[in-house]
Write a structure and sequence with these properties.
heterodimer; A: 402 residues; alpha+beta; 2 domains; 57% helix; elongated; B: 256 residues; alpha/beta; Rossmann fold; four-stranded antiparallel beta sheet; 7 helices; globular; disordered N terminus
């Protein structure tokens, strides 16, 4: 009985291919939009999380100034010194690495090639804190760090731009106005999300940077890497106390530095992207709803159009619930099929768009099931009313309908 | 709901095919009355119709517009219920059956042929004929066979896969007849079956109905307003103003 009605419904859809196609178009687009939005949103969230975790796990970043944003570089704010980093390292427990960093930028020249890149004056601890490994070569020696030798460790992008195929180790690299020897090559971290290339960077000893670039004793940031399982809130409090003491802040004065926990940044960013994903998903869901209303419209029109046919079916001996079931199955089959096509479209579009946006493509079965279920539900809900109307027609009236 | 008294012809043909049990009559109307509307505006479409039809009869119902013949046909076909009176089908009271019970009765005992053919559009002859079998839940193989046999019976072998649009009017009506008889009904109700056909096709259709009546013993009830067509019937009933005005031959009133 059910199978027969299913057969009737499918025949009906086949008989009206064009109308069926137009009916499901709204559902197709709605489902595809919902899945695409949510999938790309998930990808973006993952990308941000990955990028932040690639900075190093359990990483704290100390910057002078009260907070991020305008005014943080006010002249009155005292900078950090290398001694601050050394003090943290010496006095705070459960730390893995403490790396003072002097950020700068310069044009690099090697042979006939030149390239502009970021220059980070720092110590070997930067490798630990920043989660870097050396592909070849060696880290700075104690001597080189202390005396500020002209040596450098380059990132993969820099190597690719300046040395193409040849091994850069031991080659001279001209950094702005002085020449240094390349002693190491960092293993690539790959392209970060949002187009940020983490491999486009040159590491030199921090004293070299202070002497040759900035000409002062200042340190831009201090990166602190905690041991696994360290209580970050406690460590942050301890470092805060230590810095207040070193900066001679009275009790009533506010901190003139700030400590960021990358985990927290990651959570904040993921949260923000999650909110956006939800919003876009909601917008897409509205289009899915509109698609459902489209199905209801077409089904209503089709009941009117097919009044005579319903009359024939009733006269032949179709029961009320059989006609109801047929129309319902038609609506559900249409919306479910539309949902399937939407899923297929989304699965074709998502990898492409994810690649374009440079976010990973994460297949999320739950959103696929959800949109499919939703489109089928739309079929039931919006198919019921017209079906009810069709089934309750008086066969005599229906047969007389022109 | 109002059923207007459009001139519709009913073919009442009775084929004495079926085991009729104890009842001598296949169909018995006892004082059937049908009223439309209420109070002042009430309209009496049928005013006490008595009609008895034996199995195997070929009955033509004639009458002018508004005479109640199509109302009578709708009630005969269990598409409608009488306001008063008794309708016995094979000796069973069916006047109080509900919508679904009447649908089941139509499904199992009645076949319908309409003036406008009423085939499903864009659907092959085969599928049209299979439709009632689908509602009866027959297995696919049985359905196909029965539909082919019914189409062969109406002379449409080889046209199974043509859609309505690809068939002439006469052929469409043959498909409609095949659809009506594919379930081997007791009664075939034909409502002006030749109304949309030219006279040559009309005579062919009537010959087909006569053949079905005689060979398949299907009782045929036909509404028509063409005396030429009514001649094919072996009994003609005239309706005027909601009552039977003349009846060419109710044979042997078995019970009085």
């Amino acid at each position: 009985m059910f199978l027969n009605t299913l057969l009737l419904a499918l025949r009906e859809i086949r008989r009206n291919l064009m109308r069926s196609f137009l009916t499901i178009l709204g559902i197709v687009i709605g489902v595809a939009a919902v899945i695409t939005m949510v999938t790309l949103g998930n990808g973006a969230t993952r990308a941000v999380a990955e990028q932040i975790s690639s900075l190093g796990s359990n990483l704290l970043i100390l910057r002078p100034g009260q907070r991020l944003g305008p005014g943080r570089d006010g002249v009155s704010v005292p900078r950090f010194r290398i001694a601050d980093a050394e003090a943290i390292s010496a006095q705070i427990a459960s730390l893995q690495a403490v790396a003072p960093v002097v950020n700068s930028g310069a044009t690099l020249v090697a042979g006939n090639e030149n390239w502009s890149s970021a220059i980070n004056g720092t110590t070997n601890d930067y490798l630990v804190a920043g989660n870097w490994t050396l592909a070849t070569g060696r880290p700075f020696s104690e001597d080189e760090e202390k005396l500020g030798r002209a040596v450098c460790i380059i990132g993969e992008t820099v190597r690719a731009k300046l040395f193409s195929q040849q091994n850069p180790i031991g080659s001279p690299l001209r950094v702005k106005n002085f020449s240094c020897e390349i002693i190491g090559l960092l293993a690539s971290k790959g392209q970060g999300a949002m187009g940020m290339d983490q491999d486009d960077m040159v590491m030199i000893p921090i004293r070299t940077a202070q002497r040759r670039f900035t000409g002062n004793q200042n340190v831009s940031t201090i990166m602190v890497s905690m041991k696994d399982g360290a209580d970050s809130a406690r460590v942050i409090a301890q470092i805060g106390d230590l810095m207040r003491e070193r900066r001679k802040l009275a009790d009533h004065e506010e901190d003139n530095f700030n400590i960021q926990d990358t985990k927290q940044i990651a959570q904040t960013l993921s949260g923000a992207i999650g909110t956006l994903t939800t919003m876009f998903g909601a917008v897409a869901a509205v289009s899915l709803l509109v698609g459902g209303i489209g199905i209801m419209n077409i089904m209503l029109v089709s009941v009117t159009e097919r009044t005579r046919e319903i009359g024939i079916r009733l006269a032949i001996g179709a029961l009320e619930h059989e006609v109801l079931l047929q129309f319902l199955i038609e609506a559900v089959a249409l919306s479910a099929f539309g949902g399937l096509v939407g899923i297929i479209l989304a699965l074709i579009a998502c990898p492409f768009l994810a690649n374009l946006m440079q976010v990973p493509f994460l297949f999320d079965p739950s959103i696929n099931f959800l949109s499919f279920g939703f489109s089928a539900a739309i079929g039931v809900i919006f198919g019921y009313m017209p079906a009810r109307k069709a089934a309750s027609l008086d066969p005599i009236e229906a047969l007389r309908h022109e | 709901m109002s059923v207007s008294e459009a001139p519709t012809d009913m073919d009442n043909a009775e084929g004495g095919v079926a085991p009729t049990g104890t009842a001598a009559f296949l169909i018995e109307f006892q004082g059937i009355t049908k009223t439309y509307g209420q109070g002042q505006t009430a309209f009496l479409a049928l005013r006490g119709v008595d009609l008895r039809i034996r199995p195997g009869e070929f009955l033509a119902i004639m009458g002018p517009s508004g005479s109640g013949k199509s109302t009578a046909m709708n009630i005969l076909g269990c598409l409608d219920t009488p306001s008063a009176g008794a309708y016995l089908f094979q000796g069973t009271h069916v006047e109080h059956l509900d919508r679904n019970q009447r649908a089941l009765l139509r499904r199992h005992y009645l076949g319908f042929v309409f003036q406008g053919f009423n085939l499903l559009a864009r659907t092959s002859a085969q599928e049209n004929v299979e439709l009632p079998l689908l509602y009866r839940g027959e297995a696919p193989e049985k359905r196909h066979q029965a539909a082919r046999a019914a189409l062969a019976l109406v002379g449409l072998s080889g046209w199974e896969h043509h859609t309505s649009a690809e068939l002439s009017g006469g052929q469409q009506q043959r498909v409609a007849i095949a659809r009506a008889i594919v379930t081997q009904p007791l009664v075939l109700l034909a409502d002006e079956p030749t109304g949309n056909l030219d006279s040559k096709r009309s005579h062919e259709i009537m010959e087909l109905l006569v053949r079905l009546n005689q060979e398949q013993q299907i009782t045929v009830l036909m509404v028509t307003h063409e005396p030429d067509m009514a001649k094919y019937a072996n009994r003609i009933v005239h309706f005027v103003d909601g009552v039977v005005s003349s009846d060419s031959g109710e044979e042997t009133p078995a019970c009085s």
